[in-house]
Amino acid sequence: MNLPFNRSKRVIAVLLLLFAAGYGSFSCGHSSAQPFPECTYDSVSNTWTPADAALLPDTGRGALIAYGRDLFIRTSYFFGPNGKIASLSNGMNCQNCHLDAGIRSFSNCLSAAASSYPGFRPRSGKVETLIFRVNDCMQRSMNGDPIDSSSKEMQAIVAYLRWLGNAVPMKVRPIGAGLPVLAYLNRAADTLKGKYVFESRCVRCHGANGEGQPRPDGTGYIYPPLWGNNSFNDASGMLRVSRLAGFVKYSMPFDSATHAKPSLTDEEAWDVAAFISSRPRASKTFPDDWPDIHKKPADIPAGPFADPFSAVQHKYGPFTPIDSFMKAGMKKPIMHP
Ligand code: HEC
Ligand code: HEC
Hints:
The protein is mainly alpha-helical. The chain has helices at about 5-25, 60-75, 75-80, 100, 115, 130-140, 150-165, 190-200, 205, 240-250, 265-280, 310-315, 320-325, and strands at about 40, 45-50, 120, 125-130, 215, 220-225. It has 2 domains: about 40-165, Cytochrome Bc1 Complex, Chain D, domain 2 (Orthogonal Bundle); about 180-335, Cytochrome Bc1 Complex, Chain D, domain 2, CATH 1.10.760. The strands form 3 sheets. It has a two-stranded antiparallel ribbon with strand order 1-2. The longest helix has 24 residues, at about 5-25. The protein is globular, with a radius of gyration of 25 Å. The relative contact order is 0.11. The site of one heme C has 26 residues, from helix 8, helix 9 and helix 10.
């Protein structure tokens, strides 16, 4: 064999190694040396774990995701009444209802947003894309107008949501995704009892008239409004007493409730939800909602209904008789004109 050649090869290899080691240590702390932070999913326990957004690199995909996260946290700064980009929504932020930038399990967590869309939804009767779903919250929860689907902002929000749910297989919903479902009360939720809960537990932050507390600089709220013209409108999912109760139970009061240690009883959560839901708010009509009325959940207060129960019962319950009626495959006996 050719010894000198082999030796020179070895020298080059050593030099390369030294160079690599040197390069490595010089670039220490540089973001390109870090692995890209990814959220993880464990299929055995059906649990999801978010990655640390602070580790996102400030270039390329990392920067787009971080921008989407910022839009999610400070929606009003970008799209609110005095929005930097456009005035599309009320003063609320996505994060107001999807806590901790959408990563807090059981607090309307968005771990399953990517795995659920595109997907069929009975409200629209269509296969919806993630963009469509985000704009649903823009138009209903934020009482606003849709974000242009081809804009950098929509791409960023979608990139953020896809990053959260990247590891979750399609159609799978990890434990803690979305809103928890509370057991039905065997009575109607009570707005008077709810008013008492509101006054004793919620007023200090959300205000005596549920008006919230605006930021002095006009870029949104310190405490978001629960009703009135600046809150979610009457076509939003949050208006459903079951959704509101499930949110409030494990998330409010903001400074004390956690999933492990909720602050309200189920009854208090249902009753305060009924009270909030009974208050006046902005109204928007979506005539194409629920094309198949047999697919309407029991607590959608707007008719027409596929059962004989009143609109009031559809709003406040008791819901068990409505569910039983629908489950039995029964049909409304008489259709009044
Ligand atoms: C007023 C409260 C509220 C605000 C503000 C809000 N949302 Fe929602 N969002 C909801 C509710 C309620 C649901 C339905 C949760 C459920 O039924 O489990 C929902 C569902 C979603 C879903 C579907 C999640 C899934 O797992 O299927 C996405 C995506 C979403 N919201 C994104 C956003 C974005 C982005 C914003 C800001 C532009 C936003 N939301 C603002 C209340 C809100
Ligand atoms: C310590 C202050 C505080 C108290 C007390 C409090 N909240 Fe909240 N609430 C907040 C904050 C802050 C947010 C928005 C969270 C965010 O943006 O991270 C919020 C958000 C909400 C939302 C979703 C956003 C909206 O405006 O609709 C609802 C619903 C809500 N609270 C209901 C209640 C109810 C019901 C009570 C009483 C049982 C209550 N809160 C008590 C601070 C509070």
